[in-house]
């Protein structure tokens, strides 16, 4: 059951990370499906757990580090960050904070 959960999670993340990019969506779908099909006959519990861990790690990397960019000119790119990449805007301060 864990395997199916990782499979679905990877596909949900793929849909979010590569939204509106048909080429990347297709490539990611094919790669996910290929990896799961390649290992569908695995019977070793230890190897299955390692692959589940790998799939979970890949999902985290995709979700947390991949950002979309779009060519908008010859030498210009438009960055399209997801909401999860946005941080609070904290003003920069040269002086270290005083410990209270």
UniProtKB/TrEMBL annotation:
Keywords: Chaperone, Mitochondrion. The keyword Plastid does not apply. GO terms for biological process: mitochondrial respiratory chain complex III assembly. Coiled coil: none annotated. Residues 2-55 form the Complex 1 LYR protein domain. Pfam families: Complex1_LYR. The keyword Chaperone applies. GO terms for molecular function: protein folding chaperone. It comes from the Eukaryota. It is found in: Mitochondrion matrix. InterPro entries: Complex1_LYR_dom, Complex1_LYR_LYRM7, MZM1/LYRM7. GO terms for cellular component: mitochondrial matrix. Assembly factor required for Rieske Fe-S protein UQCRFS1 incorporation into the cytochrome b-c1 (CIII) complex. Functions as a chaperone, binding to this subunit within the mitochondrial matrix and stabilizing it prior to its translocation and insertion into the late CIII dimeric intermediate within the mitochondrial inner membrane. Belongs to the complex I LYR family. Interacts with UQCRFS1. This is Complex III assembly factor LYRM7. It comes from Amphiprion ocellaris (Clown anemonefish).
């Amino acid at each position: 059951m864990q395997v199916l959960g990782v499979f679905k999670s990877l596909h949900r993340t793929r849909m979010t990370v590569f939204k509106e990019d048909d080429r990347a969506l297709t490539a990611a779908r094919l790669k996910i499906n290929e990896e799961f099909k390649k290992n569908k006959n695995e019977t070793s519990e230890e190897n299955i757990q390692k692959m589940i861990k790998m799939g979970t790690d890949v999902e985290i990397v995709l979700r947390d580090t991949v950002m979309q960019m779009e060519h908008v000119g010859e030498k210009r790119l438009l960055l399209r960050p997801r909401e999860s990449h946005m941080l609070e805007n904290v003003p920069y301060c040269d002086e270290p904070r005083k410990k209270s």
